[in-house]
Amino acid sequence: MDVRKWKEYRHGRGAGVSRVVPQKTRKTKMAQVAVLMGSSSDLPKIQSCMDTLKKLGVSFEVRVMSAHRTPDMVKEYIGGAAARGIRVIIAAAGGAAHLAGVCASHTILPVIGIPVEGGALNGMDALLATVQMPGGIPVATVGVGSGGATNAALLAIQILALNDAELASRFAADRAARRQKVLDADEAMLKQYSN
Ligand code: RP5
Question: Residue 60: phi, psi to the nearest 5?
Fold first, then answer.
């Protein structure tokens, strides 16, 4: 591949326009959270992450980028994330999952890793690869599965809520609703099984 073709491949056609970094219009809300996944096959497994961010009114963008298939893309995107207003990065990957660690190596923003289930070891490999970062480059790792993806979003929201009182109160309301759900279930159980 010649150099010109390589640049087009990396950055898209057009004068210096990068396809890695989204072009914002004035109508587009600045994303505060970036959700990256290593493959589109990860999407159904981390859907609850995007659902939770949306439910609590957090602006986010979702991208497919791979630490081993598109390493240059990850570097460019993550390297410019803070300057574009991103405050927290969530990175989901399966297998020998190094996406979150690689993201963390390119930024000082907090990075949350979601180990994605699947493959021969069904997520155990991704869990260990994501959580066992050597000292110095932290990745806050959540659990494997849909609950982990939800927690990644909630953790990102807690970080953002440190400087956003309205978001903090939406987060508190969400937690209160989760508590109420348990109380309602307990009451229903008492009714069903009381003599
Ligand atoms: C990882 O490899 C991805 O995050 C995904 O979980 C896994 C399999 O990817 P595909 O082969 O389905 O694209 O990089």
Answer: -150, 160
Question: Sign of the C-alpha dihedral, residues 79, 81, 84, 88?
Answer: negative
Nearest ligand 1 atom to alpha carbon 66: 14
What whole-number percentage of the chain has pLDDT above 70? 87
**Is this structure's pTM higher than 0.85?**
yes
> What are the C-alpha distances in Å from 10 to residues 16, 39, 93, 108?
11, 18, 22, 24
Return the residue whose CA atom lies nearest to atom 1 of ligand 1: 94
Picking from 125, 72, 124, the residue whose alpha carbon sits closest to that of residue 102 is 72
Give me ligand 1 centre to Cα 80, in Å.
24
- Contact predicate 64/76, CB 8 Å: no
Give every CB contact of residue 5 below 8 A, 6+ residues apart in sequence: none
Closest ligand 1 atom to Cα of 126: 6
Nearest partner of 155 among 64, 28, 67, 35, judged by Cα: 35
